[in-house]
Design goal:
Number of domains: 2
Strand content: 15-25%
Largest sheet: 8 strands, mixed
Number of helices: 15
Radius of gyration: 26 Å
Helix content: 25-40%
């Protein structure tokens, strides 16, 4: 099974004769479903031209630390945020030394310092360089910091020596990188997720809706699949590609979403309500298009069902995560909803004017979340929604385990009292 579908891999190529092997690696990563961008050091360009990797990856090759064409000339930050994993293959002895020292004198080193995603390294160098005490110390330091080393292999080297230092084959690298995304923390569970906006018809032409893009909900759905869950995604109207290995149900109005949730929630272990559901709908939907004959138009609205509150009321044992998008007073409103709806967790973020400075705007690929639960909280810092989703799903899995353990303990106490 491939585990790299839709994963973003930033491939760093350094100054080693094994740089030519990166061409095959790019193709095989793409065959495994990954999107690949390449960063080359000056040393790498002495062995392979950037045009080769551009043609293979389908994206421009990144070479310069201070790229005036990058947004605000901060290309290393953009690329650090883009990647799900950074893979340096081949990694020369010089690149290992630079990483161990925390240098930021070229684009690749700066990206590694600016990123918090996993870093994997496939070394490639002469056997004596690999065995040198300085290299061994650099490898030890990097491993202690959590860097994943893949290889090297033993065998005949370009210089004619035979020994340890050859870059491992592409298949081995892909297997090890895939393991980074095989989470399994929700294995055997069914997760029901709502995402996107809803639309409330005014007439055959117009409707009430909101700015939700659905990106956060879809990212959570994909992360839940990665974590081993069976996922049912109930989606309002969005222009997003359906993630692999889940069931997607499309709905239009809040009433439609309510019916779909009712149909599937009984089988769900976890309900994650990311959808921006319309709070109100028109009392009367006009059969014909409303004409602009009057200077003022009054619409009478009535409340929609609070789907999350309904689920928690009717299915009290279902673990529920709600979302709160607020324009101010974030924590108070979020904690209020947490208590009012009697749910297990709520994830909150700021929206509206001014929020773009910290959380991105509507339809952005970036966000940050404040997550609250009874007796605890955690801030998930600004990152791509894909990365945030994985962090949030990991937290949900952790809290769900605690929730089930507490429920079992309560049942045991009740059972003892009845004896």
């Amino acid at each position: 099974m491939q585990h790299l579908t839709n994963k973003r891999i930033l491939l760093g190529v350094t100054g080693s004769i094994a740089a030519y092997k990166a061409a095959d690696l790019i193709r095989r990563l793409q065959d495994a479903g990954a999107e690949v961008k390449v960063v080359m050091t000056d040393g790498a360009k002495a062995f392979v031209t950037p045009l080769t990797f551009q043609a293979l990856s389908g994206s421009p090759v990144h070479e310069n630390l201070l790229d005036t064409e990058a947004e605000a000339a901060m290309g290393h930050i953009e690329l650090a945020r883009w990647a799900d994993v950074i893979l340096i293959a081949p990694a020369s002895a010089n690149s290992l030394a630079a990483l161990a020292q925390g240098r930021a004198d070229d684009l690749l080193n700066a990206i590694c310092l600016a990123s918090d995603v996993p870093l994997a390294i496939a070394p490639a160098m002469n056997k004596h360089m690999w065995a040198d005490p300085a290299t061994r110390e650099n490898v030890k330091q990097l491993a202690q910091r959590g860097v994943l080393f893949i290889g090297p292999d033993s065998g005949e080297q370009a210089c004619g020596d035979i020994g340890e230092g050859r870059m491992v084959e592409s298949e081995t690298i892909i297997t090890r990188i895939s393991e980074l995304f095989t989470l399994g923390s929700l294995a055997g569970l069914t997760v029901l997720i709502t995402a996107g906006p809803t639309r409330e018809a005014l007439d055959p032409v117009r409707f009430l809706t909101n700015h939700s893009s659905g990106k956060m909900g879809y990212a959570i759905a994909e992360a839940a699949v990665e974590a081993g869950a069976k996922v049912i995604l109930i989606s309002g109207p969005v222009s997003l590609v359906t993630p692999d290995r889940l069931t997607r149900l499309d709905v239009e109005s809040t009433a439609d979403m309510e019916e779909a949730v009712k149909e599937h929630v009984a089988t769900a272990d976890i309900f994650i309500a990311t959808a921006a559901v319309a709070d109100y709908r028109p009392v009367v939907v006009q059969q014909d298009k409303i004409k602009k004959n009057e200077q003022r138009l009054t619409l009478e609205l009535e409340k929609n069902t609070d789907i999350l509150a309904m689920v928690k009321t009717q299915y009290a044992k279902t673990f529920c995560l709600g979302f709160a998008a607020e324009t101010r007073d974030l924590e108070n409103y979020a904690r209020g909803k947490l208590a009012q709806k009697n749910i297990e967790m709520i994830a909150a973020n700021l929206v509206g004017p001014g929020a773009e400075k910290t959380t991105g705007t509507f339809n952005s690929d970036l966000n940050e979340l404040n997550v609250y639960w009874p007796g605890g909280e955690l801030k998930l810092e600004l990152a791509t929604k894909t990365r945030l989703a994985r962090q949030l799903v990991a937290l949900v899995a952790q809290r769900f385990t605690i929730y089930k353990e507490n429920a079992e303990n309560e049942n045991n106490i009740i059972s003892l009292k009845s004896q």
